[in-house]
Design brief:
It comes from Poseidonocella pacifica. The chain has 154 residues and is an all-alpha fold. It is built from seven helices and two strands. The protein folds into two domains: 62 residues, no CATH class; 58 residues, no CATH class. The relative contact order is 0.16.
Length: 154
């Protein structure tokens, strides 16, 4: 299961990329893959490549594998999950506009590569549910900084 190659269709499901029914248009996926610097080899990739692209370590605990391979949530899907009618509330919460006494909303996963108004914000279901239930957010192994990215103090 962990070592199965991910196809373009798998990636579209994971990143929740919508395409028109019956269409074979892959431009939306190509934009996300380009923004995340994911290059397909033989039209496939592996989970460690995807995890690294979204800021996680390539090696994750087996306990977290199911959470990390579950499709990401759009704002609309997160709002539905939390019983909210308007997806814009998710965007407000993600920038810190929360009711008093509410813990910070889980971090956003930006699939846009910095493009303005790209509507490419996603969240992990496990983190959103943990936040909603006021449990600690799952802790995933983070990617180490690139060698030379940190400068020693003077």
């Amino acid at each position: 299961m962990m070592d199965r190659p991910l196809t373009r269709d798998d990636l579209e499901v994971f990143f929740r990329i919508r395409k028109k029914p019956g269409s074979d248009d892959r431009r939306a996926l190509a934009k996300v893959l380009g923004a995340l610097d994911i290059r397909l080899r033989g039209e496939t990739t592996r989970w460690p490549v995807v995890w690294r692209a979204i800021g996680l370590a390539e090696r994750q605990s087996r306990n977290h594998h199911l959470e990390l391979t579950e499709p990401l949530l759009t704002a609309a899907a997160a709002a539905d999950l939390l019983g909210q009618a308007d997806p814009s509330i998710i965007y407000r919460w993600s920038v810190g506009k929360l009711p008093a006494g509410t813990p910070p909303f889980p971090p956003v996963i930006d699939l846009s590569g910095g493009r303005d108004n790209a509507r490419a914000k996603r969240w992990r279901k496990a983190e959103v549910l943990a936040w909603h239930e006021r449990r600690p957010l799952p802790q995933y192994a983070k990617a180490a900084p690139v060698f030379g990215a940190l400068t020693p103090p003077n």
